[in-house]
Design a protein that fits this description.
By secondary structure, the protein is an alpha/beta fold. The chain is 35% helix and 16% strand. A hairpin with a 6-residue loop joins strand 14 and strand 15. The N terminus and C terminus are likely disordered.
Length: 1275
């Protein structure tokens, strides 16, 4: 996984020329359709985006990551690129002689092997060439020939593409040559300010004049000398980067597989994809089919002609009824057949031959109408093209969220405990026609599979493959790996042959029956085929399957397994194989793994290194499964049995272990199998039996470690020893004799029968599990199926033996449900997450507890957490979204063979303000740093630590990624923002933390007056909290500083930091111990908002006791922050934002006067900077104050508000810190119209006439009344 900075957000576009390349394999996912047209918008992001061009670097290189090492040297050092023949890669920069447009410097290029990993390519882009991580992937497909578009339409498209790419901060992937859509995309993006990277993937040996590029680390001049042809093409002069891919052949398309891999890797990083189709021919059909199958959004540009026009006209009638056809597969198929018949005669007009093959391809697209959209450049004069792209991106998030929600529901669905052990399902694959080497089997219905079911008509097809017969061990020729034909002597041998079909070692004579010919009968029943098929042995044929796992070095929450892609079937599977005669099963596992995952050819050094690591890995391991395999090779008389071993790599070994395909494998890789919703799509299509065994590993993990550890539960008797290979119930363990134990504390609170209600004093089950047999059948569990002991009626631990019977310290037979709240907060100053933990018996754990009878899981979480917090924790549960992290079995020291813990782990991510309020009640609770170097965290309960690590990795990954709301804010599209915030299917994209991040960005972008400030206010309406804004990012992360406030802060900071630093100064300070306002910020603001430095001081300790007890905290903190944000906005020239924030104030009169004063002081000190805008803003706030006054209902209400000087902000506006009333502040601001208002004049009249507490001669002589003297000068 690549490491990217949090604030770097870009997107990707990708183009493909079909005349020169075959379509990539259908690997794309998460590509979703756009919805209807929207209005056009201005692309304002470029003005607030960091520059992407460096004076001393290539085109598009980032300024903020320049080092003394050249990009070329970094390529060689970081990725060790090679050509296809293993020679060092060519790399350098290209200067195009024909280019007249400034593209920001020479283009970068690298010539590399087609076997290069996608991860290495992305590292070249991000590390060596300093490009920022993409956030959107655009794919343009179509003609590789010259595009003969109408000039008007061409102009509309190029302007639309450039605008869409710029506003999404895009990369553009193309085929790299100067023809067709590739040249069109390059020219559209040429000469931009803050140039969009235009990255070409091309076939190395098809590039003309490539000899000049056979250099390393040099800048080369490149000139097109000959015309493009079917044998070669020149590189396009408007591209910024090139990957020239070498696969050893002189053909087009060498780059396709690598480009598809890069695309797939980006999608894994949650990069959405939209496919744009312009023109094209027959190959474009394959491209669209592959993309649609993978779930890509497709935009057909109708006027571009060719395939795009043909498909647009074909699908338009179907799109009219899109919703109806998507909902009904039958209706969709019927309508498609009708449309194909109507259109069949017209395909030849577009160069497409009508055929069954074309019909099949279009049928695949028609099945996914929700992904298809037709766009016409003429509809909106081209202005809505970029809007359609943005809508498509939004829709891709919508469908992805829908998919994730469905996955989450399936993963977390509650299921009832089964009262009986389920019957073994009849083998399915063994009766299938899935093996192409076999003749058709006789059909065997489910009801007729068992041999004890009478079926006299059964006539299985006899079949033994010729390879089996020719390799029999009684022949003089062949390899002698197969049994001979049946004979009495062989029958005696077969009867003593071992079988493990049900996990128990027995002889065939004990476990099976034999037919009249002396052949053993498949113990799982009929298969529809007699004899041996492709299997060499009568009866069981033994195999071994290694399950090798590691935690992803880049994301420790992800579990990965070594997987191979079979050469024969293309299916993903474990790297296993047959056990050779006389070979130990463990040796087979090691041999097969080496053969299928470790073929390094002639590279003896790498082969030796791999073999040494495999020896270390296979020195341990445990049996996960032993028994029958439902395999399409099985017959009535021969079947597969296997032993699946699990080997887990250490962290060091997992990073070091190289993989290379060999033997029967086409590919070998580490496959994600995490249950956190990030499971690789290839694992979902894993070979069925193999996937079940891997899921057993997922379930068990290190599951038995605590349950058999008596040290963790000192009150328990000594457990009976349970070896790893004897844990499973289906493994025979005749010596197993565990102690029966239920603690006295549980017995005190047992119910006497099932009829007795649960209560505070009766929370345990009766001692006899049969007394609650009916209740157990209804009790909820996350572990099914659950076996039961036939004699006692007690449920058996679904994870296997623990060495102890009974209930131990648990009250219920079977599952005991608990809840574990995982409360985290982000310490921005130190760059790490923290989790709230409690200490129980010297072990740090989550503050969880048992779910009481009749209590919901959230209620139980709230109760358990509140017991450990000093303050009221209502804010955590009312203002924070929660997310289910885990539901299921817990490896707990209290577990027994008949009672176990299950839990629901809920994650609560605290906002900054809520996190500061949550204080541990005593020293038994604390905020733990989630850090592998933190000794306390390392000692945390293993299950709890695993969940927390999973959350930590997810949170860190999310902070690196740009959320949909942040993208929409950058697009400056309030209409799309409103749609996202209202869409019920986009819940994940509008969680509190996502809204808050978007609000922070909206504030910073609003400094640019072209950006719509209303977006920031909209986000406030949807949950953004001003008090959670990162002030440091606001002041130091801005892009526009018209009044040089940042320069003033730097000068103040320089003076403050001139003193020598102490050791304590060098230690990073926690965000939660820092004052809210830095002294230098407050000092500079006080120059324009007098008294702000004193006003900000009480807020240095939001978590102080005085502040926590203050009744004003909950009532005023939000508005205080809103007012302060308005001050910040004025000081940075964002006057519209300041006004919109002022509209949300609960003291609008005071705040309008303070903002007016701020504008006046800026005019005084910054006369030459935007005087007209400042005067307009001052006048606007002056009128705003008058408008508030006008809306007051009567003189008495106005008197109270105008003369009030006891609020916290009463000291603002005066340099000496003395509290002044609103009326006095208006006089100081010389707000003539305000003071002339009837309410103000009424107060003045009352004072002069002595009718108020401020009236009379004595009061006029008071110091506080002297401010009225300047008021006379206003009239």
């Amino acid at each position: 996984m690549l490491k990217f900075k949090f604030n770097e957000r870009t997107s990707v576009a990708y183009t493909n020329g079909n005349a020169q390349a075959q379509p990539p394999s259908p690997k794309r996912v998460d590509r979703l359709r756009p919805t209807g047209n929207t209005s056009s918008f201005a692309s304002n992001v470029a003005s607030v985006r960091p520059s992407t061009v460096s004076n001393d670097s290539g085109a598009g290189d980032r300024q903020d990551d320049v080092t003394d090492v050249s990009p070329e040297e970094r390529i060689a050092a970081l990725t060790s690129l090679t050509l296809y023949d293993k020679r060092p890669a060519y790399y350098g920069s290209i200067k195009f002689k024909e280019s007249v447009v400034d593209n920001g410097g020479p283009a970068r290029y690298a010539c590399l092997s087609s076997k290069t990993s996608a991860d290495k390519v992305l590292k070249v882009l991000t590390d060596a060439w300093k490009q920022k991580k993409p956030s959107v992937l655009l794919s343009v497909s179509g003609s590789a020939q010259d595009m003969r578009l109408d000039p008007y339409l061409k102009d509309l498209f190029t302007r639309g593409l450039a605008s869409a790419a710029r506003c999404t901060d895009a990369w553009v992937f193309t085929g790299g040559t100067d023809t067709g859509v590739m040249e069109l995309a390059g020219s559209a993006l040429a000469g931009q300010s803050g140039r969009t990277p235009c990255i070409g993937f091309a076939s190395w040996k098809m590039i003309s004049h490539r000899d000049v590029l056979k250099r390393r680390g040099e800048e080369r001049n490149y000139r097109k000398l000959t015309a493009n042809s079917s044998k070669s093409a020149a590189l396009d002069k408007n591209h910024t980067h090139f990957f020239l891919v070498d696969n050893g052949s002189d053909e087009w398309g060498a780059e396709i597989a690598l480009r598809a891999d890069v695309e797939e890797e980006l999608q894994k990083q949650n990069v959405p994809l939209v496919l744009l189709v312009l023109g094209g021919g027959p190959n474009t059909v394959d491209q669209v089919v592959a993309s649609a199958i993978a779930g890509a959004q497709v935009l057909l540009v109708k006027e571009s002609g060719g395939f795009a026009l043909a498909m647009a006209e074909f699908f338009e009638p179907l799109l009219v009824d899109r919703a109806k056809l998507v909902a009904s597969r039958d209706a969709s198929l019927k309508r498609f057949k009708q449309r194909f018949g109507e259109f069949q005669s017209r395909f030849e007009e577009y160069g497409l031959a009508s055929s069954n093959e074309l019909k099949a391809k279009l049928s695949e697209i028609a099945k996914r109408l929700e992904l298809i959209n037709v766009y016409s450049l003429r509809d909106e004069e081209g202005s809505s093209f970029e809007a359609s792209v943005l809508d498509a991106i939004v829709q891709s998030f919508v469908l992805k969220e829908t998919q994730l929600q469905r996955l989450e529901k399936r993963k977390l669905r509650d299921r009832p405990v089964l009262s009986l052990v389920p019957a073994t399902p009849p083998h399915v694959d063994s009766r299938s026609q899935a093996n192409p080497e076999y003749p058709a089997r006789s059909h065997v219905p489910d009801a007729k599979v068992r041999w004890d079911v009478d079926w006299p008509e059964y006539q299985p097809v006899p079949f033994t493959h010729a390879d089996v017969r020719s390799n029999a061990r009684d022949l003089d020729t062949g390899h002698k790996w197969a049994d001979p034909e049946l004979s009495p002597a062989l029958r005696a041998e077969l009867e003593e042959r071992k079988t493990y079909f049900d996990g128990v070692e027995r002889t065939l004579k004990e476990a099976c029956t034999f037919d009249e010919n002396g052949a053993p009968l498949n113990p799982r029943g009929r298969t529809g085929m007699a004899e041996r098929g492709l299997l060499g042995k009568w009866g069981p044929n033994y195999a071994a399957d290694p399950i090798v796992t590691r935690f992803d070095p880049e994301n420790p929450s992800k579990l990965q397994v070594v997987a191979i892609q079979r050469k024969d079937t293309g299916q993903w599977a474990l790297p296993g194989g047959m056990v050779d005669a006389g070979e130990n099963v463990s040796a087979t596992v090691k041999r097969e793994f080496t053969e299928e995952a470790g073929d390094f050819g002639s590279d003896k050094r790498q082969q030796s290194e791999f073999n040494a690591k495999v020896t270390e890995l296979f020195s341990g391991g445990r049996v996960v499964y032993r028994g029958y395999v439902d395999d399409p090779r099985n017959t009535d008389n021969a079947w597969m049995e296997t032993t699946a071993f699990h080997f887990h790599c250490s962290e060091e070994l997992g990073k070091m272990l190289p993989l290379n395909a060999g033997d029967d494998a086409a590919k070998v890789l580490w496959l994600d199998i995490s249950t956190s919703g990030q499971m690789d799509v290839r694992f979902k299509k894993f070979y069925a039996s193999h996937r079940k065994w891997v899921e057993l590993v997922l379930k068990s993990g290190a599951a038995r470690s605590l349950a058999v550890d008596d040290v963790m539960q000192k009150d328990y008797p000594v457990r009976f020893p349970v070896p790893d290979d004897k844990v499973a119930w289906n493994v025979v363990y005749p010596e197993y004799s565990p102690t029966f134990y239920t603690s006295e504390n549980v017995r005190k609170f047992e119910r006497t029968s099932a009829e007795e209600r649960f209560s505070k004093d009766k929370w345990g089950d009766p001692s006899d599990p049969k007394a609650v047999e009916a209740e157990l059948a209804k009790r909820e569990t996350f572990e099914v199926p659950v076996p039961f002991d036939e004699q006692s009626g007690a449920p058996r631990n679904p994870r296997g033996r623990t060495g102890l019977m009974g209930r131990g310290a648990l009250g219920l037979w079977g599952p005991n449900q608990a809840v574990d709240p995982i409360v985290t907060r982000w310490d921005a100053a130190r760059g790490l997450n923290q989790v709230f933990a409690v200490n129980r018996n010297g072990v740090w754990m989550l503050p969880g507890g048992i779910v009481r009878r009749g209590e919901s899981v959230p209620e139980a979480a709230r109760r358990a957490f509140s017991e450990k917090i000093a303050q009221e924790s209502d804010a955590l549960f009312t203002q924070t979204d929660n997310r289910v992290v885990y539901r299921g079995y817990v490896d707990d020291a209290r577990n027994t063979d008949n009672a176990w813990m299950e839990t629901t782990a809920l994650h609560f991510e605290c906002s900054f303000t809520v996190a500061k309020m949550l204080k541990p009640k005593d020293d038994k609770a604390t905020w733990l740093d989630i850090d592998g170097q933190n000794e306390a965290f390392k000692l945390m309960n293993s299950s709890h630590r695993r969940w927390v690590n999973q959350i930590d990795a997810s949170l860190k990954q999310r902070r690196k990624q740009t959320g949909l709301l942040e993208l929409v804010v950058a697009w400056n599209r309030i209409d799309i923002a409103k749609r996202v915030l209202d869409d019920p299917e986009l819940f994940e994209q509008r969680r509190r933390e996502q809204v808050q991040r978007a609000f922070q960005q909206a504030l910073m972008l609003a400094v640019d007056q072209k950006h719509d400030a209303a977006i920031a206010v909209l986000l406030l309406d949807y949950g953004a909290k001003p008090e959670d804004v990162d002030l440091e990012r606001l002041f130091e992360g801005r892009r526009r500083d018209v009044f040089e406030i940042g320069h003033e802060i730097q000068k103040v900071t320089a003076k403050a930091t001139a003193k020598p630093k102490t050791i304590r100064d060098s230690v990073p300070e926690s965000s939660f111990d820092k004052p809210l306002w830095k002294a230098e910020y407050a000092q500079v603001i006080s120059k324009y908002v007098p008294g702000f430095d004193r006003y900000a001081r009480p807020k240095e300790c939001l978590d102080s006791e005085a502040h926590a007890e203050s009744k004003n905290f909950k009532d005023t903190s939000d508005h205080l922050q809103t007012t302060e944000l308005a001050f910040w906005a004025v000081l940075h020239g964002a006057f519209e934002l300041a006004y919109l924030l002022w509209e949300r104030s609960d003291t609008p009169l005071r705040d309008a006067l303070l903002l007016q004063q701020c504008c006046q002081l800026l005019l005084k000190h910054k006369q030459r900077r935007q005087p007209r805008e400042l005067m307009e803003a001052e006048g606007r706030f002056c009128k705003a104050a008058l408008g508030v006054l006008e809306h007051l209902p009567d003189q008495d209400t106005a008197r109270g508000i105008l003369q009030s000087n006891n609020s916290k902000r009463s000291t603002l506006g005066t340099p000496n810190g003395e509290a002044v009333s609103n009326l006095n502040l208006a006089i100081m601001n010389k707000n003539k119209d305000f003071v002339a208002h009837r309410y103000c004049q009424g107060i003045a009249d009352d004072m002069w006439l002595g009718k108020t507490e401020h009236g009379g001669r004595l009061r006029m002589k008071a110091k506080t009344s002297l401010i009225w003297l300047p008021a006379q000068g206003l009239f």
